[in-house]
Amino acid sequence: MQNNQPITKELQIAGYQIKAIRGGFFGLDGGAMFGTVPKILWEKTNPADEHNRISMQTRLLLLISKDRKVLIDTGMGSDFIHKYGEKLGSKFSDLYGVKGETQIFSQLAKYGVKATDITDVILTHLHFDHAGGATQYDGTQLVPTFSNAKYYLQKANFETATHPNVREKASYLPANWQALVDQKKLVLLEGNTANLLPGISVQVVNGHTTGQQIVWIEDANNSLVYCADLIPMSTHVRLPWVMGYDLRPLDLIEEKRQILTKLAKVNGYVYFEHDPYVDAAQVEVSRDDFAVTEKFLLE
Length: 299
Fold this sequence. Notes:
Elements: E1 7-9, E2 11-13, E3 16-29, H1 30-34, H2 39-42, E4 53-64, E5 69-72, H3 80-84, H4 86-95, H5 103-109, E6 120-122, H6 128-131, E7 135-137, E8 142-144, E9 150-154, H7 155-162, H8 178-182, E10 186-189, E11 193-197, E12 200-205, E13 212-218, E14 223-226, H9 249-266, E15 269-271, E16 280-286, E17 289-298
Parallel strand pairs: 1-17, 5-6, 6-9, 9-10, 14-15
Antiparallel strand pairs: 2-3, 3-4, 4-5, 7-8, 11-12, 12-13, 13-14, 15-16, 16-17
């Protein structure tokens, strides 16, 4: 039975303090976010504005251990106009209703963390709402935002981003990664990687875009998976609820089934990168589908 009120929770897994980094809000078309699901259903939980956009957030994840500070994804970043030029920056901000992205650094500061303290950045994929904050404008040029970190990305996704198909071309922007390449900060992975970092593994899923990687944080007692655009919001736990943006929706549904089956068995946590209301949830099998049992805000 779903509890609609999120529970505030402190979570520690594999020696990491698990901290939600809530970036800014933005908006995407509700029909695009829910594909073939009728608006009469999705608007009950995700009401649209006058432009049919639903509210979404960039929820990053900070993992703090004794010797590492790991950030998963980077949001859109705070300098659209400087990064993309006046015309494109303003167009993006207006089109996607971007606001509040500058709070990522103040969110890190809540935990005593500065950008220079980040040791590792795991990028799930290079779409602009996930990798836009990977670089920033220093007044003269684009530089890595987290100057002391290695950035981990799937090689297949890098190749997709540098040679994008026509559907995704507008989402893969070189300004978000070229400085990482130039300064040799980018580490390209090839396939599923167990123990990429202590207690942290990545798994490749291709339903949304080629070479997306989701991130598992696990120990003997707990599991949390950062699902990125595999399951972007709590409403997407339902198997048929997939985005119009997904390149291979049937593959994505099967990927969701496998991940949620595992999480339901171990009572693990699924972390939602774009949910406007909650950070994470636990799930259960519901007939031939899945349902949320508890929702959480991680502190």
